[in-house]
Queue: 2 jobs
Job 1
Amino acid sequence: DTGVSQDPRHKITKRGQNVTFRCDPISEHNRLYWYRQTLGQGPEFLTYFQNEAQLEKSRLLSDRFSAERPKGSFSTLEIQRTEQGDSAMYLCASSKSRSMNTEAFFGQGTRLTVV
Amino acid sequence: AQTVTQSQPEMSVQEAETVTLSCTYDTSESDYYLFWYKQPPSRQMILVIRQEAYKQQNATENRFSVNFQKAAKSFSLKISDSQLGDAAMYFCAYARSNDYKLSFGAGTTVTVRA
């Protein structure tokens, strides 16, 4: 296992189009997180899964955003009707258990540019 | 909501020297965790060091150490014997003990001069 994998690494889309990103966590990790990072800022929490259950969504996640984690394995993050303000790096992270002694491993991210 | 503040947008250090990055946080919780993450230009976030709030002893990881001042809500990172590979953006982060969400500061860019 080579770690958390995200696809695509880069995405350029026209305003109003829909985009979908994929995250493959480390195989034995049951927790999966999505964060958004704009240039020069720290990541901001978007949503979290424990296995297949989505347990929390940030207020940053508008109705145009939806995330899924079918079967508790990979996760997808979809943005509908993209806006220029959605341009950012979308980071996925996973961890193994409830304990914060377990490290959260991050993927390399998907950079979205909305033109 | 918890906030994490990093007041130094950029820091520069000579190779082999020491640099200290500042971080303050705001919380009403008594039990929580603090982290320093490194994000090199390749963009993958890597955990550098972790501190449990209930532990008085400051965490150390090789050349990286922290100064945790719970009463002052301060959590600084010291990088000793700086190496060229230490050049990156460093983020301070907070998480409650019963939580799973990381709250990040805005980051400090560290450059290492050869």
Job 2
Amino acid sequence: DTEVTQTPKHLVMGMTNKKSLKCEQHMGHRAMYWYKQKAKKPPELMFVYSYEKLSINESVPSRFSPECPNSSLLNLHLHALQPEDSALYLCASSQDRLGSGGTRGVLFFGEGSRLTVL
Amino acid sequence: GQNIDQPTEMTATEGAIVQINCTYQTSGFNGLFWYQQHAGEAPTFLSYNVLDGLEEKGRFSSFLSRSKGYSYLLLKELQMKDSASYLCAVEDPNYGGSQGNLIFGKGTKLSVKP
């Protein structure tokens, strides 16, 4: 199984809603990531979990709250979002943390959750 | 600072060869990756270079020169399905303490015409 699965694929929410994005991988990868991607832009790193511990938080607003319940799951809790937060949210995993060298840092991306905030 | 440059767009003809260049300046270097991203889809891994030279994988090859901070992705026998964005990314191992990060370029949108 070489897949990263994300749910939901599409999400429309109001600015007062609370929702969650979910990500799952069963490749035994020890690092998991959340990226945000706007149209015609490269992915922007939001959070990194390495061995289930939050190791990078790219100064993301607190209305985005990550959670890593176990080594296979990664959630992104959303609350009080703004219309400018509308984007494709990509989850990724890698065999080991980036910086460990070699192809262990190759990212496997999920298909993404396309979020629209009204 | 961190800077990765690649052309914004390129156009090529089916069956031809195209070379997508990438230059980088990063505080650390632990390898360079190329990813392919079709419109509306997630990026997928194409190649990895950490030593100077050419890595060949079927129709795709990737080259690295660390001294010049330069890489290219070479696509041969272009097919219509190769129309996609190609992202160059450098692994900086010292980004956040012991946790590295991938620094992405802005991507090159390749259009393959019949």
